[in-house]
């Protein structure tokens, strides 16, 4: 809660010594002995940077609440930039042009298309856990180190996927679900489990929400994260059922404490070893010895319904509530549109979701077709998260094929307050204005500049953005203006969230021309020509502007 | 990168206060026992006249017929120009600095450029800022190399002020070192000036749109202001500094006003690089050039007076540069195209107010019909390094990988090298001439000796007899005050060891 202005001094003063990643560790996971060693291991790692939370929201403005589908005639470049900017990481000029000349519905279809399964980051994703009790102290340390390496390897792999994503919403959705289900690797411990959850987001994230919820709930990561694992009938654990209702389905105040307690009795008897669980997907039930031992087979009453509910039954009951669809759509709205919620739109979207039996694609298609979504108020209203900004810029600069110094991406987004696989807590990342404070903003500029200069605090590159190719791709002899003028406008189109102002356009042209006249700037200047330095200088200038933080 | 390096980085981050997050991680360069030899508190203000200043219309060869033939519409007549001497005039827009010229605070270096001048803005600018030959492509700036030479552990182990300040959003090449950049960017001087004056409203000149997007833009601009990329010491200096003059309300005016504040506020930065765009006058040059020169000379005049008012004038020098000059012959659009060399003007109270070099010989153009080079620009930069800042010649040689003859335009050189011994006793042209009320005569002595300087009127009557002596060998100046004299012709005779050289000077009241 920021009660004082977010100055650097205030932030440093308020810097707490608490380490949430230590406080929430399960003292018996994976075994008592290993848990103790793991805690010591974690203590030695530097703390994660979580930016202070900013709860400010802009006051409401008059926005088109029109839920009508946007007409084809209104589908223009500005609309394409907006849609792609919110759904993709880093749309290039070519993407924008192609989508504009295509139609709204085709573009939305392309975005919602199913992609082929991704190659996992390594073979270790299927590796069973070791027999902990047989390992020596040193061997345990070695395994923990190795697991840590794999976690970061996976996080890096994910970011690289984002830099290489085509016109498709799948990676964006997987990040959305990661924030939604906010599971932290520091507690989960097993990289195999974190990968499994990530793969579930990718595979089921655009399909049926119920199926997604089921798969997440009974995956090893969630079972550890919210203490489903080893929750026993005699003394069940409320953690999961609370968050299930509050965060994943109904939203606060739509259930009672008793509902939580009763539901938690249903989520008993499920166990995992970090890689596999005792959940039977086909029959939608737990199985095996611990299920028989620990599951509470008695009747429970949740939201007025009584029966010998299992976890699946609870999920079904919750999804029957109207509030559930509204809650999910509200979260989606917040991510894709704006932090100030326009309820009628959310209600309409929820209606579509329910009508389609919780299939997510139709609901998203609905949202992306409304005139409301394209209201000019929302243009540039999204403050990009670190994992959106940096990978996005890589793709916009056409630099996704390079091999970056080890840890560049990871360290950068970490520094900006968004360590992938490590949300600050179960609420996920607050995001919005919390991303921007007087510490993170200069660092944003610094790491983004690295793409242009090749110098980064996390290792220098031996490559840079190819400005000449960028310029030649953008230039069109059929468009208005000299090449230099076109480049300025089109760069702004690709990089800025808000429309380019006249004053800024003039400044940018000054930088590009550096005293020359517009016609002195040639699109065909050879590769080593000093003119291209100026375009790099222009990119550096743009990177330091607020406009580039928005989408 | 290991975790412990991450800790080191995060400490850099949290400890940096208002500093730029410097790229200090992983540095391991150390040169033990090496300290900087930089001791002076002198400052040089370099102003780039961006686009290629038309030197021929700035320092005008008013007696040259070819000049008038070549420029039927653009040439400036003797009547229009400001008189410098019998053959030279200033563009009338230089009016604001004219009093300073009359007071011996303005000098000219003619024909500055480099061999095989490149006519591309970008390439030529790069040559100037990297200090390279025309056929070399260097990736570091001359100032970058200079500071890297003096502060090899940069960014560790440096003085607590920025090494250089640049007033431009881009083109960092002049300050680029092999690994980072020594300048500290101030990329919007108007904004910064307003902030420091306490009346900054973010986005005042470019309001955010009225939308959610605009709201977020406004929010980020606010945070941007809080985390502006200038360090505590710049900010404090600017707050402590004062302007005793009002500066012209334009961008170069703001730059100079801010520079003055920083210097008066005690900032120790030795180099400022300012920019004034617009000099690429291919068409309709007359008005544009006039306005530009008006803006810059007004700003320089305000600055010089401001510094004098605060008794800082001995510490500062202003030098104008440009990536090239322009062609002798005007084109069909009442403008001029890219040329080669052009004069550089320098200003201050610690300068030798002289014209170095001659008017370009318009009968002896190169095979592109452009003017010949008289001085390599690196001579000016070298001179600044040795004479103005007092660093050893080896430093200048390191920076430019060659030796360049210095130009003696610094009145009190701090040079550690022995001054070049003049072969002969010489008296330089009085400057300004005609004058009112002061002029300065320079003379060079091959050996120490007694000097007598006599002033006689047109009828040969002795008006003044100054016995100066003993004077050391080398170059000196003598100020002639004509406040109480009547207008007319006078003779200044400088005599040493039996030899006398006389100059005609004219007082025009």
Helix and strand topology:
The complex is a heterodimer of chains A (551) and B (509).
Chain A: H1 8-13, H2 20-23, H3 32-44, H4 77-87, H5 93-101, H6 104-112, H7 137-163, H8 170-181, H9 185-188, H10 191-204, H11 209-217, H12 220-225, H13 239-249, H14 257-266, E1 279-280, E2 285-286, H15 288-294, E3 300-302, E4 305-307, H16 311-320, H17 322-336, H18 343-355, H19 360-369, H20 386-396, H21 408-415, H22 440-453, H23 467-474, H24 483-495, H25 502-513, H26 531-543
Antiparallel strand pairs in A: 1-2, 3-4
Chain B: H1 3-15, E1 43-50, E2 59-61, H2 65-70, E3 82-85, E4 88-90, H3 98-102, E5 106-113, H4 121-130, H5 142-150, E6 164-166, E7 183-185, H6 189-196, H7 212-226, H8 232-240, H9 251-264, E8 271-277, H10 285-309, E9 316-321, E10 342-347, E11 355-356, E12 375-376, H11 377-388, H12 393-400, E13 426-427, E14 438-445, E15 449-457, E16 462-471, E17 474-481, E18 488-496, E19 499-507
Parallel strand pairs in B: 1-8, 1-9, 5-11, 5-12, 6-7, 6-8
Antiparallel strand pairs in B: 2-4, 3-4, 5-10, 9-10, 13-14, 14-17, 15-16, 15-18, 18-19
Helix pairs in contact in B: 5-12, 6-9, 8-9, 9-10, 11-12
Can you put this structure into words, describing what you see?
The complex is a heterodimer of chains A (551) and B (509). Chain A is mostly helical and 551 residues long. Chain A contains 26 helices and 4 strands. Chain A has a two-stranded antiparallel sheet with strand order 1-2. In chain A, strands 3-4 form a two-stranded antiparallel sheet. The longest helix of chain A is centred in the first third of the chain and has 27 residues, at 137-163. The two termini of chain A are 25 Å apart. The model of chain A is unreliable at 1-16 (pLDDT under 50). The termini of chain B are far apart. Chain B has helices spanning 3-15, 65-70, 98-102, 121-130, 142-150, 189-196, 212-226, 232-240, 251-264, 285-309, 377-388, 393-400, and strands spanning 43-50, 59-61, 82-85, 88-90, 106-113, 164-166, 183-185, 271-277, 316-321, 342-347, 355-356, 375-376, 426-427, 438-445, 449-457, 462-471, 474-481, 488-496, 499-507. In chain B, α8 (232-240) packs across α9. In chain B, 26% of the residues lie in helices and 22% in strands. Chains A and B meet through α21, α22, α25 and α26 of A and α1, α4 and α7 of B.
